[in-house]
């Protein structure tokens, strides 16, 4: 048994195959997934031709130091916000050789949620160097920490692939 379920491996394989054929690279900026997106991609043989780097920025200071997320953004909107996800993805592109990047920030639970930002809330952003940007606000619900994280990986891989395939 592998580290990831078959559907995630299939999505990662498709990205590695399609990005290799197109000569493109990807980078990740991850908070609540803690590196699982880059882990899924690097589970695939040949991924070194496609995966440039992954940033695991679990703390606010890591988001600021490694990705350039503005402290004011974190203070005003919080770490789990559309604004932070967008700045994370911009930072991942700016600080890598990737053509497409994806960023995720959320509350996997079981604690840490609030009425305004419940457990299972995840903001994802994917951006191509050419300018296209996708944002998704996902409300997975309090389905369990591992389930929220795996659902986020699935959504992130789908977003990356959609930027390539249009």
How many discrete structural domains? 1
What would you call the quaternary organization? single chain
Quote the average pLDDT: 96
Indicate the percent of residues in helices.
40-55%
Which stretches are low in confidence, meaning pLDDT under 50 for 5 or more residues running?
Answer: none
Please write the string of helix (H) and strand (E) elements: HEHEHHHEEEH
Distance between the termini: 33 Å
Number of helices: 6
User: What is the C-level CATH assignment?
Assistant: Alpha Beta
- What's the name of the CATH homologous superfamily? CinA-like
> The CATH topology is what?
Maf protein
Tertiary shape:
globular
Q: Whole-number radius of gyration?
A: 15 Å
Strand element count:
5
CATH architecture: Alpha-Beta Complex
Backbone structural class: alpha/beta
How can the largest sheet be summarized?
5 strands, mixed
Strand order of the largest sheet: 2-1-3-4-5
Q: Strand percentage, roughly?
A: 15-25%
């Amino acid at each position: 048994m592998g580290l990831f379920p078959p559907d995630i491996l299939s999505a990662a394989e498709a990205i590695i195959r399609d990005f290799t054929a197109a000569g493109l690279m990807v980078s990740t900026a991850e908070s609540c997934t803690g590196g699982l997106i880059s882990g899924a991609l690097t589970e695939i043989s040949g991924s070194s031709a496609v995966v440039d780097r992954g940033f695991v920025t679990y703390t606010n200071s890591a988001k600021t130091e490694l990705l350039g997320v503005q402290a004011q953004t974190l203070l005003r909107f919080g770490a789990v916000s559309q604004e932070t996800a967008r700045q994370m993805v911009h930072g991942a592109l700016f600080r890598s050789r990737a053509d497409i990047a994806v960023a995720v920030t959320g509350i996997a639970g079981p604690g840490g949620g609030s009425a305004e930002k419940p457990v299972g809330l995840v903001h994802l952003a994917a951006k191509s160097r050419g300018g296209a940007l996708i944002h998704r606000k996902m409300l997975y619900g309090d389905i369990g920490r591992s389930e929220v994280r795996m659902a986020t990986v699935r959504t992130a891989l789908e977003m990356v692939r959609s930027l390539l395939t249009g």
